[in-house]
Amino acid sequence: MTLGGAHGGHDLKSKLEQALGDLLSPAIQRAVLETSARRRGVDLTCVPDEELPHLLAEVRRGVRLFGLEARLVEQCLHALDTITQATEARRSEPVGLPIRTEQDILRARQAVREICRSIGFTETARMKITTAVSELTRNIVLYAGSGELLARQLSEPRLGLEVVATDNGPGIADIDSIMEGRYRSKRGMGAGLRGTRALVDQFDIRTGPGGTTVTFRTYLR
Amino acid sequence: MSKFSESVGQPESSVRQDTVENVIPIVELFGNLIVSVQIELTDRQVERLRVAVTDAIERRDPHGLIVDLSGVEVLDSYLTRVVRDIALSAQIMGVRTVVCGIRPAIAMTLVEMGLEIPSVATALNLERAVELLDEMDEKEEEAGAPSEEPLG
After folding, report:
1. ipTM over 0.85
2. Are A144 and A170 in contact (CB under 8 A)?
3. Start-to-end CA span in chain B (Å)
4. Does B76 touch chain A (CB under 8 A)?
5. Which candidate, A144, A155, A51, A153, places its Cα nearest to that of A111?
6. CA distance B74 to chain A (A)
7. DSSP class of residue B62?
8. Which of A93, A155, B46, B86 gets the most CB atoms within 10 Å of its CB?
């Protein structure tokens, strides 16, 4: 059985059993899995994404405790790591939204909040990211008329989120003075863009007569 | 609409387009106006709120104004500025204003963005906001004259 692709609840359980299969006898295997699930208070057939890392940590402990042959223990731990990665790959469903109206600003915030939740960001991190998205999408609606917002999960180099806000508007004339804080628009674009940069880990803005693209990344701590 | 509470944000026409989503109550309690933002607002609704609050102040002559942000999902630069404008307008009209209910995640976000609400009194929650307004009144009585808040 391969580890790639989406997995439902039963799929996860069978993956775990497969990972432990070479190392532990069926009885010990079942004991390890059941104890891990009980300690985390989850049902193996229905493990929420944010619980999976904790559950796997419990399983790893059981493997180290009951595994007798070092080589097989390593092999088994490696197999468990692959389960984590397969799940992360599955969670990474990029979101793309057209941005034209005020309502789209709300939609973008909601969509990004959801993706942040599934990645496992804390409430404060979610708030920062959602606020940044609010600023960028409002700039699109106010100054460019229409554009697009893309959000996707990052797995390399670390787990995180990348957001790209693009428009084909007229571009921002004096971007340097805006980013340096020498300029304040009446509706506050300056504060919004500078604020956005302060809220995220990596920030990049490219603007010209053909439009503006803002990319930011924030990583899970 | 009851005598003591009204709602803002409904479209002018009698047909309500967004139903619940459009309603922010402005409630009167112990002579204070309380605006409690409990839903996500579009910019247009935020703008309507600004107008509705200043209108309500003129019409109802309240003692103080409390803007409760505990239900706000995102406090970005636009909403922050409108909240500040509402508070400053109210203060210019002679109505003390307290902003309350800013959650920790929102507070940290505001600080990192460098957004501040200067010269606007803030309180942890609604209860503290009511207390703070009372304290302001007592101080005013002690001073014997209306003390003006610094503006700007």
Report:
1. no
2. yes
3. 36
4. yes
5. A153
6. 6
7. -
8. B86
Smallest CA–CA distance, residue B77 to chain A, in Å, is 6
CA distance B148 to B140: 9
Q: List beta partners, residue A147.
A: A99, A167
Q: What is the pTM of this model?
A: 0.70
Is there a contact between A109 and B40 if contact means CB atoms under 8 Å apart? yes
How far, in Å, CA of A162 to CA of A139, rounded?
Answer: 18
Which tens digits make up the pLDDT trace of A86-108? 555 555 588 999 999 999 999 99
Cβ separation B109–A106 shorter than 8 A: no
Q: What is the pLDDT of residues B105-131, one digit of tens each?
A: 999 999 999 888 888 999 999 999 999
Between CA A116 and CA B67 the distance in angstroms is 29
Residue with tokens 């606020």: A131
Q: Which residues contact A198 (CB under 8 A, 6 or more apart)?
A: B112, B113, B114
